[in-house]
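Schema walk-through. Below, the input block comes first and the output block second. Nothing else is stored per chain. Lengths vary across the set, and this one has 138 residues.
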Amino acid sequence: MRRGEATTVSVTESAVSLSDDRETIRVEAGELLTYSLATGFGQKRAIDMDTAASWRRGEVVFDNRPLSDVMTEVERYQRGKILVIGDAAGRLPVSGVFDLRDADTLFASIELALPVHVIRLPGFTLMRWNPGKISIRK
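--- output ---
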């Protein structure tokens, strides 16, 4: 997965070897590794195998991730662009399991749970901070 200038590789089966000009690192099933041109390889970390493979079931799973990161991930699976307007909205924490095959429900759930207003246009979705809105939180 690519996020900004970094790329993350999650391994769910077997193993892979990743190389740059300086080193080669083997990543085993159940691990992830991030790489960026600026810093090279990060530290290997354990992953939740069910969460890492959720995209195979048409789902994405988030645990306390910023809304801007969540929408960057969702955008990979949707047609069109998703734009989160404002830092306050982008920092809102999101947790949940979302069905990627049902974008209407995904966006409605975000709008119900967070103080944001979602505007859907053909090929474009906007999310903006709506501080006066009462949201449902656990």
